[in-house]
Amino acid sequence: MEKRLANWGNYPAIACDESTFSQDEQVQDFISSHSAVIARGNGRCYGDASLAQYSVSTLKYDKVLAFDTTNGVFECQSGITLDQILDIIVPKGWFLPVTPGTKFITVGGAVASDVHGKNHHVDGSFSGHIIEMDVITGNQDTVTCSAEKEPDLFWATCGGMGLTGIITRVKFGLKKIDTAYIRQKQIKAKNLEDLIRLFEEYKDYTYSMAWIDCLQKGDSFGRGILIVGEHATPGELNEQQRKAPLHLTAKRKLSMPFNLPSFTLNTLTVKAFNWLYYLKNTKREINNVIPYEPFFYPLDAILHWNRGYGKAGFVQYQFVLPLEKKEGLVAILKKISDAGLGSFLAVLKVFGKQDSLISFPMEGYTLALDFPVRKGLFEFLDQLDEIVLQYGGRLYLSKDARMKQEVFWQSYPNAQKFAEIIKKYNGKKLFRSVQSDRLLLTQ
Amino acid sequence: MPTVLILGAGSDMAVAIAREFAGNKYDIQLAARNKASLSPLEQDLRIRYGVESSTYAFDATDFNSHPAFYNALTVKPDITIAVFGYLGSQEKGQADWNEASRILHTNYTGAVSILNIVAEDYATRGTGTIVGISSVAGERGRQSNYLYGSAKAGFTAYLSGLRNRLFHKGVHVLSVQPGFVYTRMTENLKLPPLLTAQPQDVARDIYRAVKAKKNQIYTRWFWRYIMLIIKSIPEFMFKKLKL
What we know:
heterodimer; A: alpha+beta; Uridine Diphospho-n-acetylenolpyruvylglucosamine Reductase, domain 3; Alpha-Beta Plaits; eight-stranded antiparallel sheet; 14 helices; 21 strands; globular; B: alpha/beta; Rossmann fold; seven-stranded parallel sheet; 9 helices; 7 strands
């Protein structure tokens, strides 16, 4: 059945045949008779990384295979979502070692994007916690790999956007928790300089990120709120929370019922939203203990929030710049504020050390911004790309929908090596996506 | 804990049904042709829901093996759900008896063969629930799938007769008539999104109908009215339609 598929940004949308599977052999059969296949989980990458003529949906390949509750080791098929895993592990006193800002992604997607979380500076990205995994490669074999076993396949699969094959099974380590709550601290920063100073001051917290109002100019340029947190101990809970420290009460979710008309989003509304967000914290510092869900997944409470950007969709622009190049951050924020192209959400985070083969994180600052798709946007983003390149940074492939090939090849130092490993495991180019063709990885 | 036996446990609908019942604290017995393929689901049910689960080899069309299969169950199920089915190809079946007979034997004869055995056990014990997943395709023969539809029609009639008989023995029989459902069986068909249910929706309807001791359900509910209309079209008009 041919249908139009798009990922979370609703841009681009392409005609695509989607198939499901519940046995390895079904995938092997499928890839032996098709090419231009890419694995797709819950479609929460933003751009075109999981779009191809034939997509293999992993969503029905979602079984939990083992859970060692003593040592915190979890083994599952790749189509299970983080949200389902949390429901199983949190009541037993375990947590995901690394989680991105949405829990509605699959484990396979977490590996293919090598996701990072608010704790990257302490715990690294998801790949650092994988014990081993299975990948069905272009030769139709199921290959088990890890940092020790078939390391080339392993490192090209972590962050490799599905180009080495279809990830089917993942075994990874969990993090011990005593409660399902987070002790949170929110601190207002007057401007970018203040914010970066606060990041430095609070770098010992396990979790940290900041929200930036990127439409401010002058003294308030780059003002925002730093949010840091730790898993709460039982002693830090209130009486009500202490009754069942590992259980959260279920909450009703809101859903955006349809795409908002695009006129609802303009400089004025974004300004108003950011202004309210900044002012809702009336004190400079707020300390409280809250359930883990609103701390890690504030936007998951509004299902389909992506529809807020209208039918034309949006792109998320996330880049990282080396630690010593923070003037690049200023240059980019200035350009956005001058152009008046603000976004609802601008999230700043400091990454710790990591430079694996093809994963996004490197030691430095990463900023994520949303831009509704409209005329002139891509030309504007091309200009931002130039600044990113100039300061030695790069863009996150999971959020990319429009980067030019030369930007990728110049900014990812291991691009050539990655391409060679893809050739080894996917020589017939069975696995390819709109993105990999655009970046000349599989064309 | 009460136990549910799921016959044809490899399908998407069976996975959803197993999870729905396991989530409500039922132990689950999974049976399908390829026993080994069931072990991921067996583990999944144990770890997610903390229930017992077990796997068995069961082939709907290997009628002679059915008594031994049922006798070998050390715990006899409180609820037996026949989920297995084979859509097959109408066009192929018209010319090829192998295809036609596989459609008939999987959907009708095989179901009768195993449920006869379960029914005898439940009748003797004076307790139990039998659930048969039939299809709206069994309500009226259409040119596009009357081999499958006629087998399901036979199965629907079998279930209503069984219900009539076992009512007097304290045994509950539920017939389920699903409409379109998104599963591997239907993924290459063009289905109207508004009329098509997810397997989880069907599973939830079945669980509720078992609890409420319903006789017959359409899932989703509006199929009752769609089928009412389709059944009331006079034959002289119906035969001219291309359905």
